[in-house]
Amino acid sequence: MVERRPFLTFFAHAVLLTGVVFICLPLWITLVASSHDLPRMFQAPAPLWFGDHLLENYRTVLEKGLGAGANAPPVGPMLVNSLIMALAIAIGKIAISMLSAYAIVYFRFPFRMSFFWLIFITLMLPVEVRILPTFKVVSDLGMLDSYGGLTIPLIASATATFLFRQFFLTVPDELAEAARIDGAGPLRFFRDILLPLSKTNIAALFVIQFIYGWNQYLWPLIVSTKESYYTVVMGISRMVNAVDTAPQWNLVMATAMLALIPPVIVVLVMQRLFVKGLVESEK
Amino acid sequence: MIKRATFQGRALAYALLLPQIAITLVFFFWPAGQALVQSVLLEDAFGLSTKFVWLENFQRVFADDYYLNSLRLTALFTVASCVIAMAVSLLLAVMADRVIRGAGAYKTLLIWPYAVAPALAGVLWGFMFNPNIGVLAYVLEAVGIKWNFYVDGEQALFLITLAAAWMQVSYNFIFFLAGLQAIPRSVIEAAAIDGAGPAKRFWTIIFPLLSPTTFFLFVLNIVHLFFDSFGIVHALTGGGPGRATEILVFKVWSDSFRALDLGGSAAQSVVLMAIVIALTVAQFRYIERRVHY
């Protein structure tokens, strides 16, 4: 702020508060709806203040789910699947892209640049554009309805490889020289020097990739045909679109809260790392 | 591109690359190649015989009114969401850059939707606008608008546009705020001393200096909206009513897994790939230029 203009400051707060209301309204309505019983969900409009069935609703969806008509298992196991998927994708992506970036930056070998471009081109092939053939490959490999099928096709990532490549290029050459003089081999250098130096980058990338993995929708939708491999984000849309009954909105909204709380908490708790990860991985 | 001090050991280098390359080949290049091959083949209904048909699948796709309709509404939806999201987030970022008290709290309250899955955003907005019990639907009815996005195609398209814009705001806000904070204070102070008011400073200094961020965000938003909106559409409208919200990505999925039109969906995939490649190239060419900015 360059000068004092009380009116402008007031205006700025007014705009920001309006923005916050607009952004947070869906969350508020969801949270409130998840605390009512079913009969209340048939009176328009939906409530704006809490009812007294909050804990009861959450216990119901976690343990029993929405019952037979809902097309989806209890939310507890689905949350576990989502967690497995998010962690496997985040850790897997970081691991394989760190290794390949290390090879590309620190080794001299034939076809080095070809490999680099091979990875680079995958930026242009998001899963949505090659969905049917990828589904076929996964099904031919017998990986439908498995955690491998849910995660492995998604863990190759050009962006993560680039991020690490950029970072490794900024690491001073002297460190590698010193390590070599001291007799450290490439693996030792990687473990004892590069890995500790990359800690912040790894953490920032982890936040972004965890959210990416947790929020996958299209892929689990086609790979998981058995209820035991449903993730919570795909499960919830099945509940909404359950054909034979009107959605039990209070329970659906409780499920929605459970599905969005873990990634939102990750973003809020690691806000600084999240912003860093986002800005750097999209650059 | 490479370090001055490198390590010996070709075998080790290849071993380090192996996991990434193997996954890339099996799950990226093989399927993408299949899509290319399939897009010039025609398979009979039982999958017993296939024949090479040159570009007939593409001709069929581009002669298909449903596809052209999908193309048109995808463009409309993408550009509208993008413009709404960018305008709102620029406004919020400029204001957040100005206030001192509560800046952290505003930031936290504005960025969390990034973590919400598109499909969930669809569910949340669908509930608020549900014609029977939705709070906002109730408000609309009260002011005399007949609201039912299950039967009115334009309303359905409006709703997914709004939900998608809501999702994008947090993300744009972060980048705009970072861009604003990178503008040197001295330039703004100099303008203030010369008597330029806040509005004038914004349009003549801040906005032009922010233009690299704006362009970069525009491309990024288009890519995101193009692909991530599948979840919103699938959870909120299912492409309907009729085909009113059948965006391209949704149509590829629906033609592959519901209509089982292999050649047609492969041709559509190839068109989508071409669009992504064009966007990526635009983005990279632009970034190259930004370095000299």
Structural features, described:
The complex is a heterodimer of chains A (283) and B (293). Chain A has 283 residues and is mostly helical. Chain A is built from 14 helices and no strands. Chain A has helices at 6-33, 54-63, 75-106, 112-121, 131-140, 147-151, 158-170, 173-181, 186-197, 199-214, 218-223, 232-240, 249-269, 271-282. Chain B has a two-stranded antiparallel sheet. In chain B, a hairpin with a 6-residue loop joins strand 1 (41-43) and strand 2. The mean pLDDT of chain B is 84.
Order of helices and strands of chain B: HEEHHHHHHHHHHH
Largest sheet of chain B: 2 strands, antiparallel
User: If helices are DSSP runs of H or I spanning 4 or more residues, what is the number of helices of chain A?
Assistant: 14
The residue fraction in helices of chain A comes out at: 55-70%
Quote the distance from N terminus to C terminus of chain B: 22 Å
Shape of chain B: globular
Instruction: Tell how many strands the DSSP assignment of chain B holds.
Output: 2
State the assembly state of the protein chains: heterodimer
Radius of gyration of chain A: 24 Å
* Poorly predicted sequence stretches spanning 5 or more consecutive residues of chain B: none
Outline the fold blueprint.
The complex is a heterodimer of chains A (283) and B (293).
Chain A: H1 6-33, H2 54-63, H3 75-106, H4 112-121, H5 131-140, H6 147-151, H7 158-170, H8 173-181, H9 186-197, H10 199-214, H11 218-223, H12 232-240, H13 249-269, H14 271-282
Helix pairs in contact in A: 1-13, 2-13, 3-7, 3-10, 10-14, 12-13
Chain B: H1 10-38, E1 41-43, E2 50-52, H2 56-63, H3 65-98, H4 103-111, H5 118-128, H6 135-142, H7 153-181, H8 185-193, H9 198-209, H10 211-236, H11 248-257, H12 262-291
Antiparallel strand pairs in B: 1-2
Question: How would you describe this structure in keywords?
Answer:
heterodimer; A: mainly alpha; B: mainly alpha; two-stranded antiparallel ribbon; 12 helices; 73% helix; globular
